[in-house]
Amino acid sequence: MGTLGEILRWCFYTVNRWYYRVAARLMRRDRLVSGSEKKFRALLESAPDAMVIVDRRGHITLVNAQAERLFGYRREELIGQSVGELIPESARARHRQHQKVYLKDATTRAMGHDLELRGRRKDGTEFPVEISLSPLETDQGQLVMSAIRDVTDRKLAEAQLRLMAEHDTLTGTLNRRSFETLFAQEVAAASVTQIEGGLIVLDIDGLKDINDTLGHAAGDDLLRRVTVLLRGELRDTDLLARFGGDEFAVILPQTTREETGAVARYLLRTIAESVLVIGSRRVRITCSAGVSSFAGGAQPEEVMLAADTALYAAKDQGRDRVVVYEPAKEEASARHVRAAWTQRLRQTLDLGQLVPYQQPLLDTRLGLVTQCELLVRVLDDAGKPIAPIAFLATAERTGMVVEIDRFMVDCAIDLIRASSATARAGGPLAYAVNLSARSLAQPDLPGDIVRRIEAAGIDPRLLTFEITETVAITDLAAARAFAHPLRALGCAFALDDFGAGFASFSHLKHLPIDWLKIDGDYVRDLPRSRTDQVIVQHVARIGRELGLRTTAEFVEDRETLEMVTRYGVDAAQGYHIGRPEPVSAGAPAPYPTAEGIVHERP
């Protein structure tokens, strides 16, 4: 799929290209003999763009009124002149070359020919134009008809789209996607020069409290003010980005680990000592930061992970501090953590102590919770849940994730059976379960699930399996083989985090899916990001056209819910709908109907 700019360009010009090519065919048929000259001139004058007809030598033989208006000449000033008068000197050679190829190549003439360059008005001003060339056979020989359109507005729109695609619309900084591209280039350059560079990942402490107490507008204002503070202390060569939410990142080229740590501490001190006026309130805030460095042989993902690890350590140590990632110390610590989690997971599985949580999904058309996603948790010594990010890597590495997936599938089937036995308004709840790459590679697992469903006597349409893009593309053949018997039975498959990968749209051709779960990075700032709004609307439309249903994740306020409903997204999931809660097999939570939901759909 092309860029947004390419899509806009295609939509804008398809009709015009059709018009000019039909006109050219009509002209070839009439061959401009005297009987058709009046008809031809009327058609030329009615064209919406500037029309300039030139002979094989490049001399102008005929123009319309639009050409006069566009270039500022009277038509008698143009007739007989070289078409080069309408093109800046710097672009004339390119224009001549294109016209030469056009006149010699019959295939090119048959298809028409478009080219972009600069136009020049009589007063000397230059502007971008697109020229559509079409052949014209006459009694006087072969002519070339040029339809010339001013594309200044389109170029400005494309530039704005590029800016929106590369920058955070709230703060004007780079967004995560463009930052990661530039960061990869910096790491590659450091590998060549062997000059160390630094990375800071910075998180605002307590932004959620400000959003909750003063409102999201105050939170947005705070983010903009923090951006100004950071920019004021960074060099012109440093790169600043907002990753979304309360997280920022900074690349410091040609800076050692020690220097990067010093810069991070200075930035945190500057922010902590600043009194920010948000609305009518004066507030002070603090930040936490993680630091890592890169030089020869570094991988961008590893450097980012190191900085994130250091950031989490800074938060765990009480916030308002900087932690510098030290590879030797962190590796030893990581090995210890992995060993501890391996032992803990084995014990948890053996004792049957995994805890399933459920998070509701709201059907935006019905205003009802009709489905829940099951999420696995492990409890700490105090009985509090531990998020999967802490132990799933260990589970994947050891293969215990397959046991976890089997447990969660069994839970979903039991919950569906219990829900089907109740007189719940809106019918029984459907459940969705996440599957790992390891599970997709288990050839016997689909058959086991089919037998389990049949033994339980549940409606298989109430069971959905979620897989992420990264999991699916690990082995497309395995993913298709896994899905085939379950989809044949009636189960559904959802592609999670849709849009997070660069090849998201190509996966629609190869994966057997029924649902698209729009990556939360495009949803969490939806009310404030025009880029996210365009993307979410287009994904919802694509889903409808392909017969797929869509879910928006990270719906955390009413405004976002109303927007995704209006865009035609089928389901919403996030804290505004409901937080993950522990469930017990046989006792599904009775979610009520959501009140006051906007029901306007496209």
Automatic annotation (TrEMBL):
It comes from the Bacteria. Residues 338-594 form the EAL domain. InterPro entries: Biofilm_reg_signaling, EAL_dom, EAL_sf, GGDEF_dom, Nucleotide_cyclase, PAC, PAS, PAS-assoc_C. CDD domains: EAL, GGDEF, PAS. Residues 195-327 form the GGDEF domain. Residues 113-163 form the PAC domain. Signal peptide: none annotated. Residues 36-106 form the PAS domain. Residues 580-602 are annotated as: Disordered. NCBIfam families: GGDEF, sensory_box. This is EAL domain-containing protein. It comes from Paraconexibacter antarcticus. The lineage of its organism: Bacteria, Bacillati, Actinomycetota, Thermoleophilia, Solirubrobacterales.
